[in-house]
Amino acid sequence: MLDSYRDLIDGLLDTPSTLRTALGEPIAEDAPAEVANLLLELRVREAVNLRRLQAIMRHEPILLLAMEDEPEMRALRPATGDPTPEAEMATFSHDRSELISLLVNLTLRDWDRGVNHDRTGETTLADEVEDHLTWDEAIVAKLTSA
Fold it and tell me: Could you report the per-residue pLDDT of 7-27, keeping only the tens digit for each?
């Protein structure tokens, strides 16, 4: 079981470097609009996922919405200040680091922590992380092909 959780963390750790390899460092300001839009979605979804998992770990009563129903996802907006593709990637990378820090410090009991989901009913923190990694892999494929 522990190995499967490590695999999830390793998968999440791979994303920033995979994107840097594919998109360059820094990402060009004149990146195609499709790349900029996908980076925006990536950044916002990472922030939403981090917020959700932090709430679960703080034992806050939470009903998880489907990701597409989260208010931040419905109103995808560039980050304030500097909405360049590089700024979106930097914010994503920061939030991904925060997420990884949270995950590496979980106990086995934490991974199995139950939470209510508005569509699937009872789910676990591990299931949420696995869903996030699955989505992550899909958007990485879109970004590398864009």
Answer: 999 999 999 999 999 999 999
**CA end-to-end span of the chain, whole Å?**
36
Neighbouring residues of 22: CB distance < 8 A, sequence distance ≥ 6:
140, 143, 144
| Structural domain range at position 89 | 2-145
Our count of domains for the chain comes to: 1
CA distance 73 to 86: 20
pTM confidence score: 0.91
CATH code, domain with 14: 1.20.120.450
Where does the chain have alpha helices with state H?
2-23, 33-57, 71-74, 85-104, 108-111, 125-145
Cα torsion 100, 105, 110, 115 to 10°: value is: -30
Instruction: Give all strands of the β-sheet with 121-124 in edge-to-edge order.
Output: 63-64, 114-117, 121-124
The amino acid occupying position 21 is T
**Which tokens is 125 given?**
């923190």
